[in-house]
């Protein structure tokens, strides 16, 4: 099958993840991966981002497919149930709100920024080597740490799902995918 | 007279996440994502090769035999 330019967007995703190891402020660029899917689904009523442009899905596809790092087994029934998908979306929203609240506290001067990346909402990894100060408010850095934590957590979860089940198993419960599908349902009718 | 049986991909609409993995692998371009909600198979074009079923991360595509 002929490759298109968007089949190489995994390079962008990989670059993003690598940049976060050198300067955490690059994490802000990740907002693009949040807003583009939402804009496409709200404006066009399609899941064009998942279908074509998701670099993260492409990474899982490559590692699990071409590099064979996947068992290629069926995902458990409960993981594709609406309960789990919508439940995970709500959980994701709650954790995201908590991250925004922590950012607000730093902006408000109540708390000092913490130079850690929190993996799987639990494990605090030291990440001070990727912070070289900022000309902006420390809250800007706090958001970067928090947002990069979200991105790295979803990557790690996606890798686990890739290894255990099918390469793009993450797509089944990816909060962005669930959210854009809901937007499409609201826009286009239930189908 | 024997009836010829044709194999076709059938999608479980309610569990489809509309990720589009099936679209990418279909050699006949017989499957599309319908309005960002679910995958839709064009029964005329589908040859039942099963690539989509194998690829589907949610395993919601089955190859079924249908009388042609």
Describe the structure.
The complex is a heterodimer of chains A (191) and B (68). Chain A is mainly alpha-helical and 191 residues long. In chain A, 61% of the residues lie in helices and 4% in strands. Chain A is built from eight helices and two strands; from the N terminus they run αααααββααα. In chain A, strands 1-2 form a two-stranded antiparallel ribbon. In chain A, α1 (10-22) crosses α4 (55-66). Chain A is globular. Chain B has 68 residues and is α+β, with helices and mostly antiparallel strands. In chain B, β2 and β3 (38-41) form a beta hairpin. The interface between A and B is medium-sized, with 35 and 24 residues.
Keywords:
heterodimer, A: 191 residues, mainly alpha, two-stranded antiparallel sheet, 61% helix, globular, B: 68 residues, alpha+beta, Alpha-Beta Plaits, two-stranded antiparallel ribbon, 15% helix
List low-pLDDT spans of chain B: none
Strand order of the largest sheet of chain A: 1-2
Order of helices and strands of chain A: HHHHHEEHHH
Return the domain count of chain A. Answer: 1
CATH topology group of chain B: Alpha-Beta Plaits
Low-confidence stretches of chain A: none
Specify the overall morphology of chain A.
globular
Separation of the first and last Cα atoms of chain B: 13 Å
Structural class of chain B: alpha+beta
- Total of DSSP H or I helical runs spanning 4+ residues of chain B: 2
Q: Could you report the average pLDDT of chain A, rounded to the nearest whole number? A: 94
Can I get a quick summary?
With 191 residues, chain A is mainly alpha-helical. Chain A is 61% helix and 4% strand.
Layout of helices and strands, plus pairs?
The complex is a heterodimer of chains A (191) and B (68).
Chain A: H1 10-22, H2 31-44, H3 48-53, H4 55-66, H5 82-107, E1 116-119, E2 123-126, H6 138-164, H7 170-173, H8 175-188
Helix pairs in contact in A: 1-4, 2-8, 4-6, 5-6, 5-8
Chain B: E1 5-11, H1 21-25, E2 31-34, E3 38-41, H2 51-55, E4 61-67
Antiparallel strand pairs in B: 1-4, 2-3
